[in-house]
Each structure stands twice: as C-alpha cells, then as structure tokens.
Specification:
Blueprint: E1 13-17, H1 20-23, H2 35-40, H3 58-71, E2 76-80, H4 83-86, H5 96-111, E3 115-121, H6 127-131, H7 140-155, E4 161-165, H8 168-176, H9 188-211, E5 218-228, H10 233-255, H11 261-267, H12 279-282, E6 288-301, E7 309-312, H13 328-342, E8 347-351, H14 368-386, E9 391-397, E10 416-418, E11 425-427, H15 429-437
Helix pairs in contact: 3-5, 7-9, 8-9, 13-14
The structure holds 5-hydroxymethyl-3,4-dihydroxypiperidine.
The site of 5-hydroxymethyl-3,4-dihydroxypiperidine has 8 residues, from loops.
Length: about 450
Amino acid sequence: MKLTRKDFPADFLWGAATSSYQIEGHAQGGAGLTEWDTFAATPGNVRNGDDGARACDHYNRWPEDLDLMRDANFDVYRFSTSWARVMPEGRGPVNAEGLDFYDRLVDGMLERGLKPAATLYHWELPVPLADMGGWRNREIANWFADFTEVMMGRIGDRVWSAAPINEPWCVGWLSHFLGVHAPGLRDIRATAHAMHHVMLGHGRSLEVMRGLGMKNLGAVCNFEYATPADASPEAQKAATLYDGYYNRFFLSGLFNRSYPADVMEGLGPHMPKGYEKDFDIIGKPVDWLGLNYYTRKIIAPDNGPWPGHHEVEGPLPKTSMDWEIFPDGLYSFLKRTHDGYTRGLPLYVTENGMANPDRLVNGAVNDQGRIDYLNAHIAKVKQAVDEGIPVKGYFTWSLMDNYEWSRGYDQRFGLVHVDFDSLQRTPKASYHAMKAALAR
Ligand code: IFM
C-alpha cells in the first residue's frame, strides 16, 4: 500500500466490514425467512437464483474469520445483526440461539482485541413483516425499536459503536423505486413511504439505544457522486436531483430536520400524512456519521416521468460491477458532509472497496486492481484528514467474498477469497498488503 498506519493520526481506526445475510448462512440456527429468501426464490431477481442460505457459513466459521481480522492488524470489525435470526417472526418470540450467536461473536471480537462496530439492520427483513407492508408500514419503526431493545439489551454493553440501519437509500429507493433489491417494487408511493419510515426507524432505534445508556451511536448512509452528462442546464438539473434523492435526502433528514425541496417536488404528493411531525425523532443527535462510497454516475435528462433522467455510461475504468472508479468523489463527500451538515462530528468511511474478477491460481489471488483502488481512495481520505476534516476511520468492504445481493456470488468484494464450494478462505494479495500497511 502507498500509505500506512503511520501516515494517519495515531487514533485513526482501520477496519473491515461484512453483513449478516451476506456471510452467515441464514438457513442455520433457527433464523426466520427474510424477504431476501423469497425475493431470490422468484425467477429473474437474483443471478442464478442465489440466496444466503449457506453463504460463507460464518455462523460456524466465525472464529476463523475473526482470526483473519485480527491477523490483518485491523482495529475494528463492522458487522451486522440479523433481525430475522433474533426474532424470526419480526415481533414477539425471540430465538435464543440467535442472540447467543451474536453474544459469542462480540466476545470473540473483544478476546482478539477488535472493537465491535454493530449495525442493527443490513436488510434481513423478516417475511411476516414484509407481509404487513415492510418499510411501507409506519408501524415498522416501532417493530424495529423493539428489535433494537432485544438485540442491544444483550450485546449493547460490549459494542464499541452502533448504527441502526445500513444505507437507507438502498432500503428506500433501490428496493421500492428501482426494484433491484427486495421487495423489488417500482412504485413511487411505496418509495416515499419507505424512504420516510426508514428514517423514522433510525430515530426510534436511536432513542432505544440512548435509553439503554449506549454511547458512540451513529448513522451509515451510502453516497454516489452525480456528474451531468453534458454542460446543459437540463443535465445539471438532472444530476442535482439525482444527488438530492440519493445523498441529500438522508443528510438533510438527519441533520436539517427536513427533506430537500427539489426531491419533495416529486415525492411530496406521495409522502405519508403528517410526516413533518417526525423530524424531532429522525433528527435526534448522532455521535458520528458513516459514509459508504464506491462510485459515481453520469446523469442525462429525459422526458420520462419524475425524476425525468437516466444514467449513461461513463468513460472511466470500471470495477466488475461496472462501477466507474472515481476516488475524487470520496473526498468530495467527506468535505461536503463536514462543511454542510455534520460540522465537526466525527466521520468514518464505513465502506469502500471494489468487486474484481479475482481468480485463485496456485493458492494465491493477485488482486492488484483492488490494491490500486484502495490506494487511490485512502489517499483521498488522507487529503481530507490533512485539511482538518475529522475523518476518524476507514473500513474496507469487505473482509471476504460474500453474497452480493441481486448479483449473487458472482461479484467478489473480499480481501479474502472464499471458495463457495469448499468454503475455504484464502487471503488475497490485498489482504497481505493491508496487513503490512496496518502493522503497529
Ligand atoms: O455488498 C454491499 C453491501 O451490502 C452494502 N454496501 C455496498 C456493498 C457492495 O455493493
């Protein structure tokens, strides 16, 4: 790696991230069905119809995976807890085996000197809740608060940090407007409701965790840079609106207690009645903000219904997800977020990384492309730190190859290669490079 631990302040934290459904093996341990199980079982939604039933079998192999974290000299492990594993019906009865699993996992991190950074929800919506409308139903904020109480009642005394929901844009827009993620809807009213209820759920969960006396609570949003397709005012307006519903909607809800006017031009008529009264809950102070960043999009206007634009292919080198590699976007979001919204609050890059066409050859994976990607993005983090922006840590997505949602097991994001037949883990060149860079 071009930069090492020594190039950053002594208290800067390094980590890697995963999520429960993507690695655990959800068919085990008494977990309930999630909406991803039924979404994947429906032809055309997920490549090969892949699901998370076995995934990386982290449910059994977690000691080996935590050893990999420790041996790479990471400080923090960002993991998530599955709602459906702990409360298979989403409400009511608790699966003791599920709670025990996360209890052991957190103790396993502490025994290895890793700080546990928990995310409560990374998309394992229990199907009984999906049947009741999922994120379209306002009641979900209270159901999620109850899950928070159960989950954090058990591990909240030992986690280093906690955030309620990973990437609200994915829960709201990607899943209800674009239909790419479960439940696969393409409906503006469903979107407006889900976008708001996910924010309300965040706020209610935060209230519960504060009530439990927990500290170091944050929010984790994903950000995508929007570049206009040409110099016309129409293209500029289109890119600004894309930025609005992708990035500003959530920042503004959390830190300004309102939603952006340009986004409300489209979503406003479809919002839940009286949504404005919820901002006191949504805007409860957080201790930090996590930014997940991967790419940018080129946006061109069209004459279709609101938002009246579409993506066009960009000229930059791409990852195997076909995502352009645009490190400047990461710096730009750190600066914009700090200057315009968080104003001094600690920031973390809670996800950054790339899918690469990795191949295991003679027991090794030479993923130089990933090393280059990480180098370029970590340099942008350093630029922000050097300018006094309070970025306090950086997490690679992901520790290991895993279930990449509608792309199934086809896309490899890990520092560690996983053979999805034998489940053998093999650290890639990027893992060895990070380990060397993070030596203490
Ligand atoms: O795999 C996902 C993760 O679940 C959320 N953030 C983006 C990653 C890569 O697509």
